Amino acid sequence: MAVCARLCGVGPARGCRRRQQRRGPAETAAADSEPDTDPEEERIEAGVAAPAGPGGGPGAGLSPPPARCSLLELPPELLVEIFASLPGTDLPSLAQVCTKFRRILHTDTIWRRRCREEYGVCENLRKLEITGVSCRDVYAKLLHRYRHILGLWQPDIGPYGGLLNVVVDGLFIIGWMYLPPHDPHVDDPMRFKPLFRIHLMERKSATVECMYGHKGPHNGHIQIVKKDEFSTKCNQTDHHRMSGGRQEEFRTWLREEWGRTLEDIFHEHMQELILMKFIYTSQYDNCLTYRRIYLPPSHPDDLIKPGLFKGTYGSHGLEIVMLSFHGWRARGTKITGDPNIPAGQQTVEIDLRHRIQLPDVENLRNFNELSRLVLEVREQVRQEQQEASEGPALPQEQPSAQVPSGAAAEDSGEPGSGVAAVEQPAQSGQGQPFVLPVGVSSRSEDYPRTCRTCFYGTGLIAGHGFTSPERTPGVFVLFDEDRFGFLWLELKSFSLYSRVQAAFRNADAPSPQAFDEMLKNIQSLTS
């Protein structure tokens, strides 16, 4: 009978099919004559069958087990506490159990707690009573309905890309476009502006508003195209126009995007790039498609914590790059891009097996000396690749596995022998002087003068329109946990990268495989 109670939830009722299977015809007929009982009011029995009386039998002389209380018999205030601790997605099923549960689930306290714990809504939700909107409405018609668009996204804006963070902000869901600081201040904090918002105030359905332009919120639309993809549309693009026409719109955009006027930019090529970006990006009028991106997973043996960084890219200004680790490789993938190397492409790749031992400061100023060192390492890498292709694969060349500390250094004590040799200066707190060679240009002269270590790497360069792309040798320079640089040997240029100091929710990859697949997808869009 205990099994019956657990399976059917109503104990020894006549509707128990398991019990009927064990009865004979006479017992079944007798049971059918019993009056019906209400399953909602009947006690749920999970114990053994009642023992026999004092006259004998299997249960003679034994005290009866303590009766277990039915969930239906608990006071409503206790049920409210129990239901409020369950995930909001389970509550609709719970409401189907009985009328009592359904009535209790109309208690706003339950949904207020779900809004706070699942979506971080810290506003005083009691204020909603004035507008006639319940916390249940906020959860079901706003937060739960649009939960799939929370997190990080990359807009499809040709080669330029972007970084959108959709968050719950009070009683709103807001899409914030993250912008790098003004060139060349790479260490300044990120800037951001709202592109759209969704809210549930006086109406019983969520309202989507476009925030683009300078005339305030106006009517917009959001469509979830498929998993990990959604699109936005502005229904009143006239709100984006300015009375002064395109010239006024361009001047306003230039101040926001670059923090200066066109007259302040003397480089003619840079002026052309800026004007080209304005013409290209403004044609979308906030009617965009977004694809989900994840933050890179971290591993205890990673050189530094992976994540998002701001980097200097010459006349293109500052761009956002995602640093991730893949075994003995580290990769920098562009989240924002330019007409030469578009968003989604792998801008730099670092070979963590080959450390470059920099010369002393005086010799480091000599570009030819540094070039000689880097080209020697490149030749060594080519020989290793050739040997690997002719013979069995080297054990350490497994991109899917992390190189353990010390594993590569056991083979040799020479520079480039492994990760452990590289990490020794960082672990001991030591550093080595660093200066840029004479003739190497840098957008930011405020780079650190001490670095932890350096690696051989390659950088991706191409002509306008991503024509004739090729990987060229360079030097990855690790300064500290939050800053690194890359010296482009062929371009005689130096890029400085600084970590994006922001906490992002709903941005972790469900698995390393999902992250790798995401990288392939965003790269294929611009290949």
From TrEMBL:
Q: Does the keyword Cell cycle apply?
A: yes
The record's listing under Gene3D superfamilies reads: 1.20.1280.50
Q: Which cellular compartments is it found in?
A: Cytoplasm
What cellular-component terms does GO give this entry? cytoplasm; SCF ubiquitin ligase complex
Question: Where does it primarily localize?
Answer: cytoplasm
Please name the Pfam families in this protein's record. Cyclin_D1_bind, F-box-like
Region Disordered: what ranges?
Answer: 15-66, 383-444
Gene Ontology biological process terms from the UniProt entry: DNA damage response; protein ubiquitination; SCF-dependent proteasomal ubiquitin-dependent protein catabolic process
Q: Does the keyword Repeat apply?
A: no
| Domain named F-box: residues | 68-114
SUPFAM superfamilies in alphabetical order = F-box domain (SSF81383)
This protein's pathway: Protein modification; protein ubiquitination
Entry keyword set: Cell cycle, Cytoplasm, DNA damage, Ubl conjugation pathway
Acidic residues biased stretches: 33-43
Q: Which PROSITE patterns match?
A: FBOX
Q: Which family does it belong to?
A: Belongs to the FBXO31 family.
Subunit record text:
Part of a SCF (SKP1-cullin-F-box) protein ligase complex SCF(FBXO31) composed of CUL1, SKP1, RBX1 and FBXO31. Interacts (when phosphorylated at Ser-33) with CDC20, promoting ubiquitination by the APC/C complex.
The record ties this protein, via PANTHER family, to: F-BOX FAMILY PROTEIN (PTHR10706), F-BOX ONLY PROTEIN 31 (PTHR10706:SF130)
Know the name of this protein? F-box only protein 31
